[in-house]
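SAMPLE LOG
Freezer: B-3
Tube label: C17
Construct: single chain, 156 aa
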Amino acid sequence: MEIADLLSGPDAVLASVKATGKKALLAELAARAASVLKIDERKLFDRLLERERLGSTGIGGGIAIPHGRLPSVPKPLGLFARLGHPVDFDAIDERPVDIVFLLVTPEGAGADHLKALARVSRLLRDRSLVEKLRATDKADALYALLVESVQTQSAA
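STRUCTURE (predicted):
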């Protein structure tokens, strides 16, 4: 599973998102995902909050990978967001988050859900890529970095 399979295109990448906190950020991401991915905003928001109650999806280093499963989703889908200002996300390292990759998968996608999470996590562990993502505030450039970094890793 590749990042290009998860992101529908540059429209699934948000640059300089302004949010005041974790809940507001999740609400904004759910609204944008609903529009781009054609899914139910309220159901996604509720699912994301349910997941966060189990434990923060803030994985450290200023990165979060909120995720959830919805029956109406045909395949794993993603939305990438770079925040204008970091927000507290209850991350494991207690650092605020400014890089977010929202992942939504079909209800019964056990293995695919885990593969997609692993792929996104691997991608965002690349420190040089994350530095480039933080230095860019244009959606097209962010999308290119995300997709091209995968192609470069695959070729190596």
